[in-house]
Design brief:
single chain; about 700 residues; alpha/beta; eight-stranded mixed β-sheet; six-stranded antiparallel β-sheet; 31 strands; globular; disordered C terminus
Length: about 700
């Protein structure tokens, strides 16, 4: 087995809590290694590009591959072997079926040319390869656990010889690239110290010993900007700040800020979680206008740990908060640090009055509100929340299909049937939800946010779902279809409960197509099998009827939406109404993506403009889609693809869920932290208020 001599780097930097070589620039990083070495976990932890890529090192100019535009990212290496004409990835069947007897052909690995005066770039130092190469024993142990969970098909015929051979090959490749002058280092433990390869070669210049340009700046900063030490104080009365600051401890007690005497009142609440977890220790603060927040769908500001927020009369904040006239442009600053909340008046004209909200009804107001909503949802959905019996589910779907045939806000096509476009009402507040992808807890989270459920029941708001409610995109869940069935049961119940408030746009996953794959998993086929298994042939046929009745576009006075992308062809309202007669148009609206170096066939700003112009809409009208999340870290992207007034919202992330709504007459995004609300609703105690108090008291201790 091939072995390497390594030594730890002496100079390190920390990125998202992980040690990296000091010389590394974040955008240089490419992470690779044998299967099961923890590459994806590391990518997720540092917030890198979520999509995996395959890099064929035997191809000419692999270093110019457009896939490498998005960095940091995980790459699987496709490698050449002796006697085999085509390069292979170590987790594909062609390699696994060889009996691990193939010998690596290093002579066929292409190496970027050295820099000379004719080359604008030094391709050998443009990328830094991190090889995650744990010991074979560690990887084998990790993959045995994966095999039990059945999350990766390559673990089915797992044996130690396979793992050992894969580790040996990756060590050879790392050494070869290092010897050829590329920037390479190893990580031999998950999140462990990075190590350089020890070699006698003179061709490699160790970049770790280059001086860091920021060192001098850091020294100067330490001389001229000395930290100010403040002690946290407990409020037992209202205090007035004018050009002053105060630090309040993290004790779970909400705070009231009055911006000037008789001015705008803000409440600062630690984010409430119905499910007790580690999040309680590092939770964000929500800042909102209580006169708006609890009575209607309204905005709020979020302050995360280690963040600062300047509050004042900017357009966005004014829409979120609705300030009174006496609020300054830079009225105050709030910092969320280890000691507590630092509140500082920024030389405003009217100052700040700061007090604590100490009454029980104030401290537990958000918790009690969410409990009330969860109990209401239990009445709507039934308790516990679970899959409906087959006959009941079939009756519900028949009722939904009947309702779709007479939906409001949906002009008929030439055949007298509901057309392919919604013309949404002006007098209701929209709640625009992106792809949910079987994240039932995210749907429950949206419905338990302030004023959402009440607004639906009062018929002053509507929920517009942009398709793809089914098929989880979370690793390890993509083959599981029960959550998709449950999601559709809940959406169907909502449709019957609120027929004039719940609307659904068709997405590409709203199908039983056998061509529907995600990460190699045939989700369309698995969805068909699950529907037939749990619900039977009649339900399956009604589900196809449901899909065929859905609309594809929705237009309102201040936004327009579809699932994926604007069409390339010129369209008009009549074509959208009669979309069933234009099959190619359906594919464009549900399948295409934003143009980027890895997807050159995608749509651009001109496509969005043309779509807007063809529908005779205001040129400033926002266009909102889902389908194409730009990373796994966030759930909403404004001006996505650098296209003005073009936004992406994705509601299927496991850690957060975003929506768009009309806030102060502007379409704006709102983001909430995801929670396991299904479990919480099962366990909800009778005296929930007492439960919340106990959790807060234990946190203070």
């Amino acid at each position: 087995m091939f072995r390497l001599q390594t030594e730890a780097f002496k100079e390190l930097q920390t990125i998202k809590g992980i040690a990296f070589p000091r010389y590394l620039k974040f955008r240089q990083l490419l992470i690779t290694g044998p299967p099961g070495a923890g590459k994806s976990a590391l990518i997720e932890k540092i917030g890198a590009w979520p999509e995996e890529g395959v890099l064929d090192l035997s191809q000419n100019n692999w270093w110019r591959n457009r896939m490498l535009t998005f960095r940091p990212r995980e790459v699987h290496l496709s490698l050449p072997f002796k006697g085999i004409p085509k390069a292979m990835v170590l987790h594909e069947e062609a390699w696994l079926n060889t009996g691990y007897s193939l010998e690596l052909d290093l002579s066929r690995i292409r190496i970027p040319p050295p820099r000379n005066r004719f080359l604008p770039l030094n391709w050998r130092t443009k990328y830094v390869f991190e090889f995650n190469i744990l010991s074979p024993k560690k990887i084998f142990k990790l993959r045995k656990k994966r095999k039990v969970a059945q999350t990766h098909h390559i673990d089915v015929n797992l044996d130690f010889k396979q793992v050992k051979h894969q580790v040996s090959i990756y060590r050879q490749v790392a050494f070869h690239l290092h010897e050829c002058g590329l920037l390479v280092y190893l990580r031999e433990n998950f999140e462990g110290t990075p190590k350089r390869i020890r070699t006698e070669s003179k061709r490699f210049v160790d970049m770790a010993h280059k001086p860091k340009g920021q060192d001098l700046f850091e020294k100067l900063k330490g001389v001229f900007f000395r930290p100010i030490h403040r002690t946290a104080v407990y409020l037992n009365r209202e205090i007035y700040l004018k050009g002053e600051s105060v630090v309040l401890p993290h004790n779970g007690i909400p705070i009231q800020l009055m911006l000037g005497k008789g001015g705008t009142i803000l409440h600062v609440y630690p984010e409430h979680f119905a499910v007790a977890s580690k999040k309680l220790q590092n939770r964000d603060y929500l800042i909102f206008n209580p006169a708006e927040y609890f009575s209607k769908i309204s905005g709020f500001l979020r302050l995360g740990k280690g963040e600062k927020l300047v509050i004042g009369k900017s357009k966005r904040q004014d829409a979120m908060i609705q300030f009174s006239p006496n609020v300054s442009k830079r009225h105050l600053m709030i910092s969320h640090n280890r000691k507590g909340l630092l509140i500082e008046d920024l030389e405003s004209e009217s100052g700040i009055y700061v007090s604590s909200l100490t009454q029980d009804r104030e401290i537990y107001r958000i918790a009690d509100m969410q409990t009330k909503k969860m109990n209401r949802l239990k009445e709507i959905f039934g308790h516990p929340i679970k899959l409906l019996p087959s006959e009941e589910a079939f009756s519900l779907l028949l009722e939904v299909n009947e309702a779709l045939g007479k939906e409001s806000f949906r002009p008929d096509n030439v055949h007298g049937q509901p057309g392919g476009v919604y013309l949404m009402p002006d007098d209701m507040t929209p709640i625009i939800v992106g792809d949910l992808h079987a994240q039932v807890d995210n749907l429950l989270k949206i419905l338990t946010e302030p004023a959402v459920l009440e607004s639906l029941e009062q018929k002053i708001a509507y929920m517009l779902i942009l398709g793809d409610a089914v098929h989880s995109e979370i690793d390890g869940e993509m083959e599981q279809m029960e959550s998709s069935l449950l999601m559709m049961d809940l959406l169907f119940m909502l449709k019957i409960k609120f027929p004039e408030q719940i609307f659904y746009i068709r997405g590409n996953h709203d199908s039983f197509s056998k061509n529907l794959y995600k990460s190699g998993i045939p989700q369309g086929l698995l969805w068909e099998r699950a529907v037939l298994k749990y619900r039977g042939q009649q339900y399956f046929e009604e589900m196809e009827r449901y899909y065929n009745q859905l609309a594809y576009v929705a237009i309102a006075r201040d936004f327009f939406v579809c699932h994926a992308s604007p069409p390339r062809r010129t369209v008009d309202l009549e074509m959208l109404k009669n979309i069933k007669d234009h099959k190619g148009l359906i594919e464009e609206l549900t399948m295409n993506r934003v143009k980027n170096p890895g997807y050159p066939a995608g749509y651009t700003q001109s496509s969005v403009k043309s779509f807007r112009r063809a529908l005779q809409l205001d040129p400033h009208l926002p266009f909102i889609v889902s389908h194409n999340p730009m990373s796994r870290k966030n759930s909403v992207w404004l001006k996505a693809g650098k296209i003005k007034r073009h936004h992406i919202v994705f509601s299927g992330m496991p850690h957060e869920v975003s929506i768009f709504s009309r806030i102060s007459d502007r379409i704006m995004p709102l983001t909430f932290t995801s929670e396991a609300l299904q479990e919480r609703m099962k366990q909800l105690p009778k005296d929930h208020q007492l439960q919340v108090r106990c959790e807060n008291e234990s946190e203070e201790k």
